[in-house]
Amino acid sequence: MSEQHSIDLPGAETVIKTAKTYARDLAERTLATAVVAAGGVAIAAGPADMFHASFWETVAAAGIASAGTLLKGMLARAFGAKNSASLAKGV
């Protein structure tokens, strides 16, 4: 008797990048940057007591970091793979 082996292939959205997958990728990266930046500022200003930042200063710092990520993702589409927010070709 022969054994059957299944092959696990990635989904079509993983292989074929579209404008929709680009938009979702860029949104995810931008939102993740905002959350991480806000968390970093809150930790540094709070328990770490490195400096004092108000809520709005924390939001502004996160917004600046997110704007940088958004700009980088838009540049990646212009100069990298068309439907990817990564500057690396083929990612």
Number of alpha- plus pi-helical segments: 3
Largest sheet: none
Give the overall average pLDDT. Answer: 84
Spans where pLDDT lies below 50 across 5 or more residues: none
The best one-word shape is elongated
Structural class: mainly alpha
Sequence of secondary-structure elements: HHH
Radius of gyration: 19 Å
Strand composition percent: under 5%
Range of helix content: 55-70%
Structure description:
The chain is mainly alpha-helical. It is 62% helix and 0% strand. It contains three helices and no strands. The protein starts with 11 loop residues before the first helix and ends in a 12-residue tail after the last helix.
In a few lines, what is going on in this structure?
This protein has about 90 residues and is an all-alpha fold.
What descriptors fit this protein?
about 90 residues, elongated, mainly alpha
Protein topology:
Elements: H1 12-15, H2 19-45, H3 55-79
Helix pairs in contact: 2-3
